[in-house]
Amino acid sequence: MRREPNLQTWNAVKTHITLMFQPVGRGKKARHQLDVAHQRANDTEASYTTYMRRLYLTIGAGVSEDERLYRYVKGLRDPIRENVFMREPLTLF
């Protein structure tokens, strides 16, 4: 039986439409990219954040908020990562 999505917000509608029209296998590729994602030397925090948001959008609901936060912070460069870990954030965005 197919489960209908909960589309009560505009963001939920956009996410659902985006996921419906993705190429087959794109989610698996995004998961692999998430496994190796990190902020490179020439990446700003904004560009790294945008990249991670795109990966999470591609993967969809298959990643919990705790996992998203952990993977995002883990991929930050050292001085920034340590500072963020010390603040103990509860949500990613």
Large-scale geometry: globular
Describe the biggest sheet?
Answer: none
Q: What is the count of β-strands?
A: 0
Query: Low-confidence parts, pLDDT < 50 over ≥5 residues?
Result: none
Summarize the helix and strand pattern as letters. Answer: HHHHH
Helix tally? 5
Characterise the protein shown here.
- It contains 5 helices and no strands.
- The termini are far apart.
- The protein has a domain at 25-87.
- The chain is mainly α and 93 residues long.
- Helix 2 packs antiparallel against helix 3 (45-59).
Helix and strand arrangement:
Blueprint: H1 10-20, H2 26-36, H3 45-59, H4 65-74, H5 78-87
Helix pairs in contact: 2-3
What's a quick, concise take on this entry?
With 93 residues, the protein is mostly helical.
Provide key terms for this protein:
93 residues; 0% strand; 5 helices; mainly alpha
